[in-house]
Amino acid sequence: MFIEFRNEVEHVLEEALASYDSEGMELTESEHADISSRIAFSLASKYKRSPKSIADEIVKYIKIPAEDTLISNAVADGPYINFFVNDVYLHKALQRIKEGITAKKKEGKIIIEHTSANPDGPLHIGHLRNAIIGDGLARILKRAGYEVETQYYVNDMGRQIAVVVWGAERMEIATAKKADHAVVDVYIAANRMVEEHEAYQREIEDLMGAYESGDEAVVKRYETVVNASLSGIKATLERLNIHHDLFVFESEFVREGAVEAVVEELVQKGNIKRRDGAALLLHLDGIDKELVIRRTDGTLLYTTRDLAYHRWKSSRCDRLIDVFGKDHELVSKQLTKALELMGVRAPEFVIFAFVSLPTGSVSTRAGRYISADELISKIEARAYEEVAKRRADLEEDRKRAIARKVGIGALRYDMVKVSPEKHIVFVFEDALDIEKKGAPFIQYSYARACSILRAAEGLFTDDYDDEYNTALREESEKDLIKKLAKFEYVVQTAALELKLHLVAKYARELAEMFNAFYKYCPVLNAEQELRGARLQLVYCTKTVLGDVLDVLGIEAPDVM
Predict the structure, then answer these.
(1) Residue-level pLDDT at 124
(2) N- or C-end of the chain: fewer Cβ atoms within 10 A?
(3) CATH number for the domain whose boundaries are 372-551
(4) Which helix H or strand E contains 34, and what residues bound it?
């Protein structure tokens, strides 16, 4: 509903600005109005007048329709032009929620690539933010009406996996462990062996060359290790409520000749330099570091294979989105320039800063990491302690189910509650603390709404009555309705700007407003007409809280 209100404001303001030479209307959300315009500031310098006098003049030209409008009035407040919603807006906002909010289907297919961790072991905390941001963006874009496909690009040709395959010939991959954890044990041990014996380096390089050329025996060895690791990674992602539509293997592009075709095209179109007589380096305008597209020994690099993958992806969709860590910023720039050179659509990049634990940094190679599985189990165990303390009356299975929802919710929310470029230190206690207003706080608000509705069973119907609109007059009631009405707008804005933290912020603010309403406005003890209206408001709040948690990939428990 907020989108329609904003559109109306744009229309009446545009008409009022007919006599001005203006660009845009500079609308913004404000604590002092439902929408505010800063246009008077821009016009002041152009017309050599004070912003206040221009705002006062513009308001005189604003004509609000007498009927069929969502605007109550427009007033000048110093240099700002403030617009306010009317009762019709409040009524229609709740009515729409009751009817069900469905976004209009948008044209074009979007492919989002995220996670894409090397299959040399389990996911660790360094991968979680990538996976959760990528999954969250996919959910938001789907909610906004787009067709979305999520992909995991499997780097099955890198040095890391070659070390594992080499090691698997010398030591057994434990079958008693979760497969990806067993694989990383081999990787760590094999990597130490290779570092201690320089002669093994050549064996690793030979293995990489044999796999790249398609040696059948070597391919089978690789497939055994890669598939084992991926089975464990998929299981971890499932615990996080994350699903990929497609797993794409980079070796496919080498075997099909797509990577060689990329090399040939770049040699023809690009500024190529040769090093040591064989290595090929591509100079890209505006980037100091040259892109190595083929090594001296003739093997191809990850980025070269990535170019072939992006060409293939581009042919399957209308929009590409890649979720990359901050350490891939240079790669993202090189990819963009090289793809432009090839005439291929470049992806949009969502770059995120790293996440760490208070204990320090992560290194799989050195064996200094906390696996995602371990982290998930720890946070679920910590959540269970809180649930057991608060709800001793519940059966054991119920307590554990709630703890799982709360633990995963806390983990997912903390990874996206701030903009992706900000570094995160993940602290168990903070993530699970209801007072910190993270996921448990939002989930608790949802559970509270469910509890109120259960207690009110038989006291109201799902049918919305016009009388309810006039009954809700308290400021906390109106503020809550206005916040509910912004859900569609927040989703559309987050989808347009690829900013998941906007949805996380909205979820927290909605929960805060619901709790303020509950504090100041009795529901079950209110007189009959008012009780019915407030129960309808609780029902609508429950609906939107459930929807926003779903968009964030967080389960909504009806009991906490």
Answers:
(1) 86
(2) C
(3) 1.10.730.10
(4) strand 33-37
Closest CA relative to residue 15, chosen from 84, 75, 61, 67:
61
From the list 517, 507, 524, 509, the residue with the least C-alpha distance to 472 is: 517
pLDDT at site 461: 63
Q: What is the CATH number of domain 116-356?
A: 3.40.50.620
Q: Which residues of the chain have pLDDT under 50?
A: 362, 364, 367
CA distances from 15 to 3, 19, 133, 370, 446 (A): 19, 9, 41, 59, 42
CA–CA dist 169, 163 (Å, integer):
10
Whether the CB-CB separation of 526 and 416 falls below 8 Å is answered with no
Pick the CATH number of 2-85 from 3.10.100.10, 3.40.50.970, 3.30.1360.70, 3.40.50.300: 3.30.1360.70
How many whole angstroms from its chain centre is CA 542? 22
Which amino acid appears at position 253 of this protein? F
Q: What is the pTM of this model?
A: 0.90
Got the DSSP string for 256-312? TTHHHHHHHHHHHHSEEEEETTTEEEEE-TT-SSPEEEE-TTSPBPHHHHHHHHHHH
298: left (phi over 0), alpha (psi -120 to 50) or beta: left
Q: Could you say which DSSP state residue 345 is in?
A: P
CA-closest candidate to residue 417, choices 507, 322, 345, 524? 507
Please give the Cα distance from 486 to 6 (Å, whole number): 11
